[in-house]
Automatic annotation (TrEMBL):
Membrane topology category: Multi-pass membrane protein
Keywords: Cell shape, Membrane, Transmembrane, Transmembrane helix
Chain ranges passing through the membrane: 12-32, 44-63, 70-89, 109-125, 132-152, 158-175, 182-201, 280-302, 318-335, 355-375
Region (Disordered): 388-418
Predominant place of localization: membrane
Record's GO cellular component terms: cell division site; plasma membrane
Biased composition (Basic and acidic residues): 388-398
Pfam family for this entry, one: FTSW_RODA_SPOVE
First and last residue of the signal peptide: none
GO-annotated biological processes: cell division; regulation of cell shape
UniProt keyword annotation of Transmembrane helix present: yes
Protein name, per record: Rod shape-determining protein RodA
Lineage: Bacteria, Bacillati, Bacillota, Bacilli, Bacillales
């Protein structure tokens, strides 16, 4: 088992270390203007140390163990989600999505992302390259994602609920979805999106009354109005996104300097809420400017590119599917978190992967990288076994043996360059 560490992807490890090098100072800057959140930067050091332990531990575990018992993984995740709706659940920032089990607090909606990826990937892999049937495959797999989506929506956590939809769509697309079905889903999705936006703007008063009095979701208006109708949004509703835009714009090309941001380090307190978590990109933009944000995006690009390369190397279809699901999860979180401060997306509580403060979020992201590492390690081990099996089964004469040896070494060399 320990031999899997020989196949550690050091590119990903270095990226994670660089992310830690960004996260700790930025969180420190975000919480340094006041005593209310003091110490969160120190907590993130502890979470990162624990997270690296999780990465290397997950690397040692054969990922096929999770896919073998994927229904148990799914059931455990659903149990934790449902417990949040009981008296054990706790409410933070308007979302009843937290569990407090003794001294340990967790957000099951974050944990369930990886469980959903493993479950859907396992179901798709069973098709063995066959085209997905709509009622036989797409609908049942869709229900697998819809049930937790509904539970998380009941928790009042729109951001994490939408991540389940993006994971589902990403895996269906790569899982041999028929073009006609993909086209139908695209048309329906686009119709619902643009029709919903048009209806929201046209019948805003009626929608507001329905959300406030029927759904008891008045705070959704405060998140959607600044996105679709910024001129008509209330001052309180647009406070976070508007000031966030001003802060990022004020950073210019190279930023105002570490702990020198006018909006974040305002003497009367930060003018942008939640700069240590949801709004952390604002700190980076104001203090390190366009260059700082660009460098962070380059790190994300390298990380995602490396995971895609590992997915292409993988000989087991379920391993490739799992990586695609993890990539979809990360890309949604990155786009949503940054997009909500430049007017592309509505405001949600989605954290920026590996940068925002949050123990559950960081640990599940590190665990996801650990699963990717496990897939790479298992792929390399299987390839090595096949190479030596080719040599062993080759002819005993010198010509055949040397030919097999050369072929094996050639394939191993090509694998090592990836």
């Amino acid at each position: 088992m320990l031999t899997k560490w020989k196949h550690t992807d050091w590119t990903l490890v270095i990226i994670l270390m660089m992310m830690m090098g960004i996260c700790i100072p930025v969180v420190h800057s975000a919480v340094s203007n006041g005593d209310k959140f003091a110490g969160l930067d120190t907590q993130m050091i502890f979470y990162y140390i624990l997270g690296f332990g999780v990465v290397f531990l997950m690397t040692l575990v054969d990922y096929r163990l999770y896919t073998k018992y994927f229904w148990a993984v799914y059931a455990l995740g659903m149990l934790l989600l449902l417990l949040t709706l009981t008296p054990l659940g706790q409410t933070q920032n308007g979302a009843q999505g937290w569990l407090k089990l003794g001294p340990v607090g967790m957000q099951p909606a974050e944990l369930f992302k990886l469980a959903l990826v493993i479950t859907i990937a396992s179901l798709l892999a069973r098709k063995n390259k066959d085209k997905l049937g709509f009622f036989a495959d797409v609908v049942p797999i869709g229900l697998v994602a819809f049930v937790p989506f509904a539970v998380v929506m009941a928790q009042n956590d729109l951001g994490n609920a939408l991540s389940y939809v993006l994971i589902l769509l990403g895996l269906l697309w790569i899982g041999n979805l028929k073009f006609l079905h993909a086209f139908i889903i695209f048309v329906l999705g686009a119709g619902l999106l643009f029709g919903g936006i048009k209806g929201y703007v046209t019948y805003h008063d009626e929608v507001s009354d329905f959300m406030t009095n029927t759904l008891d979701r008045a705070h959704w208006l405060d998140r959607i109005d600044p996105w679709l109708m910024p001129e008509e949004a209330s001052r309180d509703a647009s406070w976070q996104t508007k000031n966030g835009k001003y802060a990022i714009a004020g950073g210019g090309m190279t930023g105002q300097g570490f702990k020198q941001g006018e909006m974040v380090q305002n003497p009367n307190g930060s003018l942008v809420p939640y700069t240590y978590s949801d709004s952390i990109i604002v700190v980076i933009g104001e203090e390190f400017g366009f260059v700082g944000i660009s460098l962070l995006l380059v790190l994300y690009f390298i990380m995602i590119h490396r995971m895609i390369v590992i997915a292409l190397e993988c000989r087991n279809r379920v391993g490739s599917y799992i990586i695609v699901g993890i990539v979809a999860m990360f890309m949604y979180q990155i786009f949503e978190n940054i997009g909500m401060f430049i007017g592309l997306m509505p405001l949600t509580g989605i954290t920026l992967p590996f940068i925002s403060y949050g123990g559950t979020s960081l640990l599940i992201n590190m665990a996801s990288i650990g699963v990717v590492m496990s897939i790479r390690a298992c792929t390399r081990e299987d390839a090595a076994k096949d190479e030596f099996s080719d040599i062993k089964d080759s002819k005993n004469d010198d010509g055949g043996g040397m030919q097999a040896m050369r072929g094996a070494l050639s394939r191993m060399g090509r694998s090592g360059k990836a």
